[in-house]
Amino acid sequence: MVVEFDEYKGNKMIVLKRSEDDTYPFKFGKNKAKLVVQYFEEVKKFAEEEDEE
What we know:
Layout: E1 2-8, E2 11-17, E3 26-29, H1 30-38, H2 40-48
Antiparallel strand pairs: 1-2, 2-3
């Protein structure tokens, strides 16, 4: 995983990439980062639950 920082309209953003050449990185700003931290356990449960097929 690659972590970078960027800026959008004057706001700092974090950029998460699966690899250096990831075409579609996951980008978000400070407010969404705070939400992820606040609800970390719920996000973790969601990520770990098995996909329904």
